[in-house]
Amino acid sequence: MDTSRDLWLVVARASVGVMFFISGWGKAANPKKFAADFAAWGIPEPDLASTATAWAELILGALLVLGLLTRLAAAGLAVTMVGAIYYSVWPAATEASTTATGFLSQFFYSPEWLLLLVLLALAGAGPGRFALDEPFGVEARLQRR
Fold first, then answer.
1. Which of these, 6, 35, 89, 119, is most buried using a 10 Å CB contact count?
2. What are φ and ψ of residue 111, in 5° steps?
3. 93, 103 Cβ separation under 8 angstroms
4. What is the spatial distance between Cα 142 and Cα 75, in angstroms, rounded to a whole number?
5. What is the per-residue DSSP string for 60-125?
């Protein structure tokens, strides 16, 4: 058993999970502002999409912190980051940059890109031993399939 790996996984899960939980809480508490942001970014059905995103961040963030359904929670949040990159980061980086280097600098420094990478790593690595997935055998059942 690799305890250091499990410790790093719990730190990553908890850090990213708390961040998404708090973000989702704020978005769910002020749905009109968040829907207006979605409308400004050109996201279809902004009221529905913003509500779904807020609750996804809140619920899936909490699951990450707990280490429950970790792979599913991380994958779901990764989908939200793909949407954020497509609708917000990519256009902003394109608009702010006049060179390929400038675009790449804007894009790869975005928090959404970095969060996507961490979420994909968590989806691939799983929760580690210090998670609720472990005592309930969720991870073991998923690996058998």
1. 119
2. -60, -30
3. yes
4. 14
5. HHHHHHHTSSHHHHHHHHHHHHHHHIIIIIHHHHHHH-SSHHHHHHHHHT-HHHHHHHHHHHHHHH
Is 56 in contact with 74 (CB distance < 8 Å)? no
Q: What is the pLDDT of residues 7-30, one digit of tens each?
A: 999 999 999 999 999 999 999 999
Q: pLDDT, tens digit, for every residue of 35-57? A: 999 999 999 999 999 999 999 99
Amino acid at 114: L
Total length of the chain: 145
**132: DSSP letter:** T
Q: How many angstroms separate the CA atoms of 27 and 5, rounded? A: 33
> For 52-67, how does the pLDDT look when each residue is reduced to its tens digit (9 = 90+)?
999 999 999 999 999 9
How many angstroms separate the Cα of 103 from the Cα of each of 77, 99, 106, 112, 116?
Answer: 24, 6, 5, 15, 18
Q: What pLDDT digit, counting tens, does each position of 113-134 carry?
A: 999 999 999 999 999 888 988 7
